[in-house]
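Give me the fold.
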Amino acid sequence: MRALALDIGEKRIGIAVSDASGSIASPVCVLPANEVLQRARTFRRVLEDYEPDVLVCGRPKTMAGEDGPQAQRVMTQARSIADSCGLPLEFWDERLSSAEAKRILREEGLSEKNMRGKVDMVAASLFLQSWLDARRS
């Protein structure tokens, strides 16, 4: 089962995908949010290339485990995307995924400026991997 993960931000959406066996998550790309929300050609191409079986979206939570201030917007947008793609939707806690993504990219030697377009897709791959691992255990 192949999963497609979305890290939904106000301006950008990071995209990651699992392998066909549902074992390993990999970053794919970052697209402008409006292209994903409107199912522009760039997003449709991602769907065609990977043919996902499920959509996994990050759910912004506070450190206390409650929905964060962006949660309602993200959940509404995720449901709209899933409905327009005809995919089942699951949410997964995305706490600290962006901070961890920045740490990983810094370790690879990227500057803040150079990591700007990559953080969202790496964050998506991190919470997707967590979701995949939880499904296997």
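The longest helix spans residues 119-136.
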